[in-house]
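Troubleshooting log. The previous structure file for this entry was overwritten by mistake, so regenerating from the original sequence record. Sequence copied from the archived sheet and checked twice against the printout by T.R.
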Amino acid sequence: MTRQLRQQSATGIHHVMLRGINRQTIFEDDDDFCKFVFILKDMVQPHDQLRRPLPSRCAIYSYCLMPNHVHLLIQEKADGLAAVVRDIASRFARYYNDKYGHFGHLFQDRYKSEPVNDAGYFLVLIRYIHQNPIAGGLCDDVESYTWSSWQEFTGDKRSVSSICAVGAVLKKFPLEDLREQVNTPLSKALKVMDYDTRSGTISDEEVRAFFLSNYGLNRAADLALYEKSRRNEILKAAKDFGASIRQLSRLTSLGYSIVQNA
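Regenerated output below.
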């Protein structure tokens, strides 16, 4: 099947989403989140090997790092969008694979993107991206989530060099107006690229706790290393516990049919 051509953006601004393959977890601990933030910073403020500054490869207006996917509101520059997103993904995948002994793809083969051609939709995406952790059940309010760019807007990340073009956003939307908008929930009927909600009747953390307490599994993905009959026994127990097939496939990096047939 021929791939659909990406839509061009008249402004050069895109909403980009990178997702773990089979929705697997891509951030296991705080160091993983920090590494991804560092890579984003290096796209906005690149240096050569002698630490001399180079031209910025893109502008980032907001971001949110979720356990199994990433949202970026990004503006392409001379390098183009595809090259920048490819480098972000490949650099993090090398780090992740080296750290965890992971083999194969980490991200879905093709990132998702949509053009942002007007200020109204730009504001919708600022709100949507920062509200993503609430939609995913990770927190109760935008202010409390650590791994998004909202704290850059509020000034709570003073120890971290700014990644986002906060000034450009606040010229269009003053902080107090933006804060009110970001803290006003968007309609669930709003059609934004892959509005992600948690799958399964129990939370991911409950499934991880089940694996750890019953089978000593520190990482759900390690289940792929088990002998087939033992792996299937554990998967069946997890399904009986209440985890969904899709949820287990995402957490363990095992194929949907493997989990379904266990």
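The first helix runs from residue 30 to 44. Archived copy saved in two places this time.
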